[in-house]
Amino acid sequence: MARTLYFISGSPFAWRAMLALGLKGLDYTAVELHGSKGDTQTPEHLALNPRGKVPVLVDGDVTVYESIAVMAYLEHAYPETPLFGSTPAEAAHIWQRVMEVDGYLSAALAGAARPIFTQTFAGKEDEINENFAKARAEIATVTGWLGGNDFMAGDAPTAIEAILYPPLAMIARVGPAINVPGITPNIPDYATEFPALAAWMKRVEALPGFDAAYPSHWRDAA
Questions:
Q1: 33, 47, 65, 128: which has the fewest Cβ within 10 Å?
Q2: What is the pTM of this model?
Q3: How far apart are CA 128 and CA 147, in angstroms?
Q4: What distance in Å separates the CA atoms of residue 42 and residue 196, rounded to the nearest whole number?
Q5: What would the pLDDT profile of 89-100 be if each residue is shown by its tens digit?
């Protein structure tokens, strides 16, 4: 069955879908789009996702957009390597963590970074700093989820890895470059402040499919 994933390099939402595909051991063709070129607003793409965003997964005659919906689809379509646990309790725990990352850490980072990237930060400095502080607190919280395990829900990677790694990598990369008067990102250095989290990130980077999902423009700039 042909399987295609439409993405924009560096999009944390597309990245999480690609990581999930890799963790599932599923082959796919990755089609890179460029928002600056209007690729997501073409009639062809809007026919796949009328909201004009990524990711979009086309799996045979099934088309799915919204990253968490893509992950849920993969879990049901290809249950052999579960990403959401094997019991109701495990599924509830993993879904809880997934929604926590999306609703708190990712939301705080978006609230902090979006006004900076869109140059709409004037007058929002206090709100942006508050969101950066929330993000730092969430980073401490998610580090505690490890509890001495190799991965966030035990000894094997789950959907939590796919949804958590991209925003952590994103803010670690772009945070130090933020230089706006009145805004203090205060991004932690994972290796020194959260060594268990830094070690977890290294384990995620060694997982199947990680290299294929890694943002191509980051690799080109390295």
A1: 47
A2: 0.94
A3: 30
A4: 44
A5: 999 999 999 999
Enclosing H/E stretch for 190: helix 190-193
The Cα 25–Cα 171 span in angstroms is 27
Q: Report the Cα 1 to chain-centroid distance in Å.
A: 26
C-alpha distance from residue 74 to each of 26, 54, 70 (Å): 9, 16, 6
CATH number at residue 19: 3.40.30.10
Q: What pLDDT, in 10s, does the model give residues 210-221?
A: 999 999 888 766
Q: Which amino acid is at 54?
A: V
User: Does residue 104 share a domain with residue 65?
Assistant: no
Are 168 and 100 in the same domain?
yes
- Torsions phi, psi of 94, nearest 5? -70, -45
Torsion sign, CA atoms 149, 218, 102, 50:
negative
User: From CA 123, how far away is CA 183, in angstroms rounded?
Assistant: 11
Mean pLDDT confidence for 66-80: 97
Average pLDDT over residues 65-80: 97
Q: Is the pLDDT of residue 131 over 80?
A: yes
What range defines the domain where residue 32 resides?
3-77
For residue 13, the model assigns a pLDDT of 95
The DSSP element (H or E) to which 64 belongs, if any, is: strand 62-65
